[in-house]
Write a structure and sequence with these properties.
210 residues; Arc Repressor Mutant, subunit A; 2 domains; single chain; 9 helices; globular; 70% helix
């Protein structure tokens, strides 16, 4: 508990230094949060290069928008929300880019049937691999649509891997409140993903770890 209180105090001091324009605070921000931002981004993006770019984007956004941080929640949870939103924006951009890069139909030549364009061979994934890939996409979309009061506890506990005590301290709520919001958020996700066989077990993190 003492460590959590020390972390909370250190975060408040860091936020104050960033607001005052202390340039050394930018370095301290990077040292304190870069690894955590990268870990969260990597779980969503599955690309080390993209995760590294998200780290830079998030650090810049935190620095530029620190005045918008009112302190109603912990600095860590605010940074995690920015990280999640930045990663989701990158995912949406990547999907749009893949759609725009689709093949154009090939016209038949000399009466012969057109040859189908080369496509990636997904056969090695098997049904389970395809199922998990679809589940990841659906889960990311469902998480993005959750109200913040439910989404953030799930991100902290099930994605970031914080304990109940750490997550409740980060959000400045009681453990019972955190558990209630977490349970409700998980139930909403299960309902939205009920068509997947076997349902959804967030704590197993199968959708994030494959």
């Amino acid at each position: 508990m003492a460590k959590l209180l020390d972390d909370s105090l250190a975060d408040r001091q860091l936020a104050d230094r960033l607001r005052s324009g202390d340039q050394s605070a930018v370095s301290d921000l990077a040292l304190r949060y870069s690894a955590r931002i990268r870990q969260l981004a990597l779980r969503h993006l599955r690309s080390e290069e993209d995760a590294d770019e998200v780290v830079q984007d998030v650090l810049l956004k935190v620095y530029q928008n620190i005045d918008a941080f009112r302190g109603d929640s912990a600095l860590a949870s605010w940074i995690y929300r920015i990280t999640f939103n930045t990663a989701m924006s990158r995912l949406r951009a990547a999907r749009a880019s893949r759609r725009d890069a689709g093949f154009s139909p090939i016209e038949p030549a000399d009466g012969e049937a057109a040859q189908a364009p080369d496509v990636a061979d997904w056969s090695s994934l098997g049904d389970d691999g395809v199922h998990r890939a679809e589940l990841r996409q659906r889960l990311v979309k469902a998480l993005a649509g959750l109200p913040s009061i439910y989404r953030v506890p799930i991100l902290l506990r099930d994605v970031q891997g914080l304990s109940t005590e750490e997550a409740s301290a980060a959000l400045k709520v009681k453990d019972e409140t955190l558990k209630s919001r977490l349970h409700r958020g998980r139930m909403i996700l299960r309902e939205q993903l009920a068509d997947f066989s076997g349902g959804l077990r967030l704590r197993s993190a199968a959708a994030f770890s494959q």
